[in-house]
Write a structure and sequence with these properties.
binds S-adenosylmethionine, Rossmann fold, about 290 residues, disordered C terminus, two-stranded antiparallel ribbon
Length: about 290
């Protein structure tokens, strides 16, 4: 069950949307139609559906414009290790990346990666094509300075609500960003961008506050999700793992998270790829879906 924590959000489990509002299902349907089209027709369809998408969405709100300052202040105020979402080891992310068998040379993007140590750990594991996107230049600078100058990482100072991906990635990783999108238009925009940015056989990892998690994060309202809610949003993907994690903040507060990891491949192809493979012991909280 998806639990709206924001004042009056129409969250993704909504089965009906306000008149004229573009639903996630509409976006997904358009995407499936696009996929079935010959390459030549896709370009035209993209142009018209992008226009429709943007028409149907709320115009850039003051909140969006204020976002960089909000996040810059959080990082410069508390420091990268003092923010509530800080984790000394991105353990769940790394476990799921192993589980998805993401190749070392595969293009990986951490959206809303902020000052997370995930990029450091992936560099350490030999990943060579890493991108971190965030609306906060302060966070990106903290992460960039931590890394050796010889390490090549692409740092994208972008807002996910307006960003237009210029290339395609094999892995889209998001820990604690999607849950800030508290209206249907924002969520639809995010999912469309994610699909545009992801290769046809790409994978996603998304983590949000669980339905019994906090109602706010970083002073902002959030939408909370169970695994089933996130799985529903990933229509056309094969979910490989879903999991619950109890994150402990630097001040000792416990925050339940929901994680999903999925492949953009039909289940049969995922099974075939996984056959005979072993990725080692599984954390007990994991629910095996494939
Ligand atoms: C709760 S923090 C999580 C950071 C990181 N993923 C981690 O696990 O440490 C949310 C991050 O998302 C970024 N963010 C929030 N809204 C964003 C948006 N619309 N576009 C890009 N980044 C955004 C913030 O700057 C912040 O770094």
């Amino acid at each position: 069950m998806l639990t709206p924590a924001c004042p009056a959000p129409r969250c993704s489990a909504d089965r009906s949307e306000a008149p004229g509002e573009l639903t996630v299902r509409t976006i997904e349907r358009r995407w499936r139609t696009r996929k079935a089209m010959p390459e030549g027709r896709r370009h035209m369809a993209d142009r018209s559906s992008t226009a429709q998408t943007l028409d149907a969405m709320p115009s850039r709100s003051a909140d969006v414009d204020k976002q960089p300052q909000h996040w810059d202040r959080r990082y410069s105020g508390a420091g990268a290790t003092g923010v509530s979402w800080y984790q000394p080891e991105p353990a769940m992310s790394l476990t799921l990346i192993d589980r998805l068998r993401v190749a070392k040379e595969a293009p990986v993007i951490d959206v809303g990666g902020g000052a997370s140590l995930l990029v450091d750990r992936l560099v350490g594991r030999g990943y060579t094509d890493l991108t971190v996107l965030d609306v906060s230049s302060t966070a990106l600078e903290i992460a960039r300075r931590r890394l050796d100058d010889t390490v090549h990482v692409r740092w994208l100072h972008e807002n996910l609500m307006t960003w237009e991906p210029q290339r395609r990635y094999a892995l889209w990783h998001d820990r604690a960003v999607f849950h800030f999108l508290t209206n249907a238009g924002e969520r639809a925009r995010y999912l469309t961008t994610m699909r545009h940015a992801l290769s046809d056989s790409g994978s996603v990892i998304i983590a949000t506050f669980a339905s019994d998690g906090p109602e706010r994060c970083s002073g902002l309202p959030v939408a909370r999700y169970d695994a089933a809610d996130l799985e529903r949003l990933l229509d056309g993907f094969t979910v490989v793992e879903s999991s619950r994690e109890e994150h402990v903040t630097p001040d000792g507060t416990v925050q339940p998270f929901t994680w999903v990891a999925a492949h953009r491949l039909p289940v049969a192809e995922v099974r075939a790829a996984a056959q005979g493979s072993s990725t080692g012991p599984r954390p007990p909280a994991f629910r095996k879906l494939i």
